[in-house]
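Re-running the complex after MR caught last week's input typo. The corrected sequence lines follow. Everything else is unchanged.
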Amino acid sequence: MIALTEVRREFRVGDDDVHALRGVSLDIAAGEYASIMGPSGSGKSTLLNIIGLLDRPSSGSYQLDGEDVTSLDDLRAAQVRREKIGFVFQFFHLVPRLTAAENVELPLMLAGVAPGERAAKVDGLLREFGIARRARHRPDQLSGGERQRVAIARAMVMQPAAILADEPTGNLDQNTGKEVLHLLEELNARGVALILVTHDPQLGGRARRQIRMVDGEIQSDSGASS
Amino acid sequence: MRFSDVARFAWRSLTAYRSRTLLIVLAMAIGVAAVVVLTSLGEGARVYVRNQFMSLGTNLVVIIPGRAETFGGSGGMMSGRTPRDLTLDDALALRRLRGVKRVVPLNLVSGEVSWNGRRRDVPVAGSTDDLLHLWDLHLAVGEFLPAQDPRRATSVCVIGWRVREELFGARSALGELLRIGDRRFRVIGVLKQQGEFLGLDIDELTVIPVASAQALFNLHSLLRVAMEAGGREDVPAVKDGALRLLRERHQGESDVTVITEDAVAGAFDRVLVALTLALGGIASISLAVAGILIMNVMLIAVAQRTSEIGLLKAIGASAEQIRAVFVTEAALLSAVGGIAGSLLGQLGSWAVRRAYPTLPAFAPAWAAVAALVLAIVTGIAFCVLPARRAAQLDPASALARR
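Corrected-run output:
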């Protein structure tokens, strides 16, 4: 589903060129569960951003579901993000002034789905994730675990092919983190590809496929053959 | 993204940052209110002046001796040529024109009036009984000049309020003999206190028959002749008739200037419309200031909401949609401010009308609408830059910030 070929990404910071990615080639199949691990600065977040079309490679190519998405225009890139990819972040990134339900509803709203249809989908997901009675609460009235569940519900509401999670448990205590991870794995079990970025080897070790990055390169990949 | 959703989303962020929103709405409202109140002042002045002209009788045609070289000049006086006299006989001939209701000859000179050793320099008007209606004069006691042949130089006079007060004090002036120049006039009436009228202080005035004035001050020409046409539609005919008649009487020379009230009122009208526009323009500066405030606040909003913008992009918002959200926010801000300002402005001009009942300070409709439209346009225009900045944010780095 995801096919990266020789992807490089350079930034200029001041006078220095920073090589965040130095020729990464990676294939991830639909429904796969992969973790990307590595110390900070190893390029794992940049890789995730490129997979999620939030960033573009400086060189190399990226095919998503057989479509070359290396250099899509803004409108089409936004559409691909909306339809195929769900993001989960370490800091949840909920819109503070909107209720839980409204936060989950956002991607549907951006897609122009009719309000009635939106409400049904949002209600269903919130119930499924056990946060239905918090639907009308704003993020600051929710616990960390609840916030992340809302964020995951938001990532799932468009029924994406892949969920990209960047340290999804990094801001949660251990138990809550575990619950959240279980939720993500459950979604993966239903066929959604899960790509998990973490610096925590214990978390990353749960994935069927483990990719380790150092200095912008893939050092090891337990499922590279597939 | 549906428009209603964009509007609702923008509305939510306005209500979320309440103090920010209130301040901007206030700035916009003050700008719009300033435009509305100032233009209502200008328009009020215009209507006030027009009403003053209306009170002269709407169908006025005024004849001045001497030919105006340019429009609005004051006849022969300005051109340096001695004008031919405009005589009382000319005025009497004008009476026979068709469509003329009244002909009022007028002389106005400064003369010394005295009674019992007290003297005073006052404007002395020589005219006929019709002046009463023409100038809308009101009598406190007695009567006005008698209706008689204008060529009769009767020795009667009507005096203004202050003339009576200063010469006669607490005594009644009626029936007393007042010396004007070297003749004596019997006081037959005293005018009510009514202040200035077209730059002339009525309270200082002394009115005597026109023939008496001409004899007394050795005048051959009238200062002017005011004619009142029977109806508004008669005005052009009266004007043409007067010109033709006077040319015949003056050996074929067109040596008088005819001013219709329309022309004078029109000139004032143009001046005051220009004044209103200028006031509105000055007030619009405050709208521009409000616009810059909006830009400032939106730039801060973009900076504050960087991670929110990054998130919106991550969940599939295009640059276009981000821009639409911010522009809608600015449009809503300025629309709410504009509407509040319109109400505030109406309140302001109401207060002006309360304070100065004679001034009909109603903002012209075009100004009220233009202020509102200008407010919204300004708000949107000044939001283009912040909105573009938001739309161009790099989502990856926007999300990296907390």
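None of the earlier attempt is carried over here. Chain A has a mean pLDDT of 91. The two ends of chain A are 12 Å apart (CA to CA).
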